[in-house]
Amino acid sequence: MNDLSQYIDIYLEELDEQLNAVEEEMLRLEQEGSTESGIQRLFRAAHTLKGSSAAMGFAKMNELTHEMEHLLDLARNGQLSFATPMTDLFFRCLDGMKKLQAEIVRSGQEQFDIGPLILQLREYTKRNRPVAEADSFDAAPPEAWRNLQLNAVHGRLAVKLRVSLADTCEMKAVRAYMVDVQVRELGYVAWSNLTDPEPNGDDPGSFVWLAAIAVQADELEERIAGMMDVENAAVEMCDLASVGFEAEAHAREPGGNGEEPAESTSAADRSRSQTVRVQVDRLEHLMNLVGELVIDQTRMQQLQKLFRQQLGSDDHVDALSALSDHLTRTVGELQQSVMKVRMLPLEHLFNRFPRMVRDTARTLQKDVEFVVEGKDAELDRTIIEDLGDPLTHLIRNALDHGLEAPVDRIQAGKPAKGTLRISAIHEDNQVVITVEDDGAGIRAERIRQSAVAKGIIAAADAAKLMDAEAVHLIFRPGFSTASTVSEISGRGVGMDIVRTEIERLNGTIEIDTVPGQGTRFVIRLPLTLAIITGLLVQVSEKEFILPMSSVAEIIRTEASEIRTVNGNPVVKIRDQIVPIVWLHDALRLPRGEARRKQIPLVIVGRMEKRLALAVDDLLGNQEVVIKSLGTFIGQADGVSGATILGNGKVAMILDTTSILKWVEAL
Amino acid sequence: MSEMEQYVEFGIGNENYAIRISEVHEIIRMQDITEIPNGPSYVKGVINLRGRIVPVIGLREMFGLPDKEFGKATRIVVLNHLEEFIGIVVDRVNQVVSFENTQPPPDRIGGLNGNLFTGIGISSTGLVGILKLDEVLLRN
């Protein structure tokens, strides 16, 4: 083992890759039915893992993959069908392999007991092997069924014939060919899984035919059974009415992607040789250093402006300006590059979901097609890690509350199978992730009633909300539309947690829903958490940063424009009445004398809840490096972190979400 | 062993206290402290220590003494506590000392709970309360 320890990383990487490939393939098999190329890919994955696990001395992984490979080998030769029981069994095997994987990662020791799985795999083989099961006919192309139908006229019977040859039979393919000749004498053969003889003589021992015969079924059975080396022959009448359905089900198959697997492996090899593994903390350190540079560069820019003001046009000042500009560009690029290094494709996150959707849909007895798009969009790794829970919650919600049961869908005139789509695209400096279902949608009226009943909002206020605004009430704490708490999505984690999580990542979430047609959640996230664009504001002689991502707009208003409604100050912005809050009050700072005639207002908040924050002065926007306040201080209400300004002073970065909450609580 | 251990001795009001020197990162002059809105009351704010954000607490407040204007002698003792820097504001820093012998703390020392101290030492300035950092910095 000691000599092999240097390969463990490569092994684990391969293991991870192959397990993902197996899972993906299994889900595809389940969705689209088994295809030859799919089983072939599964076989290859199992085969690869068997080999490398043996080489690394992981006996259990080796044994399990060996048994799986064996079964897959039978399946690809048409001797076993890859039907639902086998899919389920394979999913259990996959879980077993993942447990082994986790154990290998943790301790290098395989603990998980694979005995039961091995037993089930063998049992399955034994039960299904001797005679090819009815499902062997699944491999028949649609034309075969059509031809059978066309020929099963004038008293000819459509039958399924299964023949298994004795184990002692030397040249099985030749014997099977003779059976074929016999069947053709008695009627028309629409299809058979008869294959060309394997060069190594390792032919399967059982064959099937689809035929329209001119004799009685038992006569055919008798004739074939009487042939040499034939151990068993079984004739079954074909139910052509169900064939129509079957044929249709298989019509989709040829459309499956015929990608050349050999090519994709070599592509993976190529890309692997061009990557370097780096410790995450080294990246963190690099990011911190870049952060320092960004601060210094901001300071330098300010000095440069100052010099220009004081000295006017001067050769040295010009040189400094040029230098400062160049530095700004270079540091900007450096920052971008380091950020890129920290980014991971969303694939790592999205790949978790298909399996979860499958299991959840089964539990809920819903039929769903799960579509994943934009796996290659990249995000900062810390964001990806924190995105798992909220997305899982949204997907579960969509399956549980969004998509209707198949019966209800049919009644509503929709296809029985619902569609759940998760996609990601890059947009400017953001990644937009959408979770979309074609389910029942959210009825605004129900949300209003529910919110009022739960005391989240006063009835009068609820009535004033437009539908699009009312729907957003589901994000309020204490809201949950499900009347019963279900195992799937009612674990006390409400939509408010989802929104809080997203906003903690400086992101936003919005709902777009049409009753009866579906619901779409749109999440916008910054590419990175470490550096944001901030608006520097002054409040009673102190400087604060408001993240630009939460600023809707900035206006200046005359003191005389401010009116009061119920004693609360408001301002009218394009027909919308927006309440004003002095940031001083939220931060418990003295307001002081108003020095200016015009009051700068920073408009923050979401559609249904806007707020104008009155500040003393606007000092412009700039890139700021977010620093945590540390665990000793922990969370301070209204503050999400701190940053060091160009002048070396520390400024607090304000968290508008909690300021909004604070205002709501008033 | 413990007899030879060195301590940083500092004063708050009329009292003198000491912290093991191994727990002190550095001692700096008073800085601009940025307050944290709605932060914990015992935290005065944060400072920029060469690019790091370091929280600063007032021992006066923690020990229930009235706040005092910063003077020339006011210092921030930056401690290394649980891999985090924490600054404490003290009225003055006296000296680095080691104590010949220390006595177990009484139940209460000048209105403070005795379990905030590991013991009482005697230096040239008189009695010195040796602080148990883990207790003093215990949140809340």
Automatic annotation (TrEMBL), chain A:
Residues 250-274 are annotated as: Disordered. It catalyses: ATP + protein L-histidine = ADP + protein N-phospho-L-histidine. This is Chemotaxis protein CheA. Keywords: ATP-binding, Chemotaxis, Kinase, Nucleotide-binding, Phosphoprotein, Transferase, Two-component regulatory system. It comes from Cohnella lubricantis. Residues 263-274 have a biased composition (Polar residues). Residues 271-529 form the Histidine kinase domain. One of its GO terms (biological process) is chemotaxis.
